[in-house]
Write a structure and sequence with these properties.
The protein is α+β, with helices and mostly antiparallel strands and 146 residues long. The chain is built from 4 helices and 5 strands; from the N terminus they run βββαββααα.
């Protein structure tokens, strides 16, 4: 089974900022979040584990590394999405990210920006429009013009 590696580093206090913990994704190079160090915990691994669990991640393993700590989680969800408040849909499948909003946004982009601009995607626009209507729960007429 694949796992998502989270690299955890401690940042000490500076003259203007308190102690922080940086969580970086081993899969997505640009995916990184900084959280405040919670002093009720003993170390940055415990702070990171608390944040990960609070944001819907399930921790498989954790340990010490040369530059700090690491944790492996089952979910391959960007840390920035979790911090921004994008939550998993727990009603259908526990731990699975609800991608319907992202699908709607992508399909809306295709429909709005591809019409008449790229002749090679002339049949992609009607398909995207039908998929968008399906995602919105509307009845779809197979022969309708979009």
């Amino acid at each position: 089974m694949n796992a998502h590696l989270i690299i955890i580093r401690y940042l000490g206090p500076s003259n203007t900022r308190p102690s922080r913990v940086i969580l970086s994704s081993g899969r997505f190079p640009a995916d990184r979040v900084t959280i405040s160090f919670n002093h009720r915990f003993n170390d940055s691994l415990a702070v990171a584990a608390d944040w990960l669990r609070a944001n819907g991640y399930s921790i498989e393993n954790s340990g010490e590394a040369a530059s700090g700590y690491f944790a492996t989680v089952r979910e391959f969800i960007a840390l920035k999405d979790a911090k921004a408040g994008k939550r998993w849909n727990r009603s259908e499948n526990a731990g699975q990210y609800d991608l319907r909003d992202n699908l709607r946004a992508l399909l809306r982009y295709i429909v709005d920006n591809s019409r008449g601009k790229n002749p090679w995607c002339s049949n992609a626009v009607p398909r995207a429009a039908r998929a968008l209507n399906l995602a919105d729960g509307k009845d779809v007429d197979a022969d309708a013009e979009y």
